[in-house]
Amino acid sequence: MNFEIARKRMIETQIVARGISSPRLIEAMLKIPRHIFVEEAMAAQAYGDTSLPIGEKQTISQPYMVALMTDLLVLTGTEKVLEIGTGSGYQAAILAVLADRVYTVERIRPLALRARKALDSLGLLNVNIRMADGTIGWKEEAPFDAIMVTAGAPDVPNDLIEQLKPGGRLVIPLGNQAAQTLVRITRNADGSFGREEITGCRFVKLVGKFGWSSEE
Ligand code: SAH
């Protein structure tokens, strides 16, 4: 299988065809090899139009969802970005190409370790990974220009809102465990907040102090 051709086709048929046109984002998705973020046995499926299992009952998101959520952050290259839910590390890799610095939090150690290896193999040295409950954010590195939560939450964790810069954007799937709505919160310069509902989606659950409990 020629991964480069598969990647180009993925971008044409799943991303551009659905209305995402940011040249920087398309360039980043062409550059990052998605197949190194899935188990070797699944490499051939890496450019399909679906999420895929990555072990520990977690998933790497559908390529279109990665593109859509990234697009909503409107990154120009100067930003400090926080991601909650490192998972495979693929989304963090895309963010690393499009922003200045990426801070990503994962609660499951084997996933955090595997993501670190994949990111290192691509030489993406501007990604910092922390093993912790990301529902409380990453206080020492706050504030952030943009925050992305890649697991489904019952509500917006307040700590994340507090760690968002004025003018900053936060993208998060909100809802119950079966289905969520992708929401973008904008913290305006005057301190007020904007809220946009983007689309329906389905993510694994955000587990933590300001998320779901692990048994629920
Ligand atoms: N962005 C990932 C997909 C993540 S799947 C990718 O590109 O592959 C969601 C991830 O969120 C899972 O790995 C899960 O373990 C993690 N997660 C769930 N709750 C979390 C929390 N409170 N803090 C950090 N990570 C969390």
TrEMBL record:
Family membership: Belongs to the methyltransferase superfamily. L-isoaspartyl/D-aspartyl protein methyltransferase family.
Keywords: Cytoplasm, Methyltransferase, S-adenosyl-L-methionine, Transferase
Source organism, top-level taxon: Bacteria
Catalytic activity line of the entry: [protein]-L-isoaspartate + S-adenosyl-L-methionine = [protein]-L-isoaspartate alpha-methyl ester + S-adenosyl-L-homocysteine
Keyword Methyltransferase: yes
InterPro entries given in the database record: PCMT, SAM-dependent_MTases_sf
Name by which UniProt lists this protein: Protein-L-isoaspartate O-methyltransferase
Active site: S61
Role summary: Catalyzes the methyl esterification of L-isoaspartyl residues in peptides and proteins that result from spontaneous decomposition of normal L-aspartyl and L-asparaginyl residues. It plays a role in the repair and/or degradation of damaged proteins.
Keyword Transmembrane helix found: no
Annotated source species: Geotalea uraniireducens
Main location, first listed in the record: cytoplasm
Subcellular localization(s) per the UniProt record: Cytoplasm
EC number of the protein: 2.1.1.77
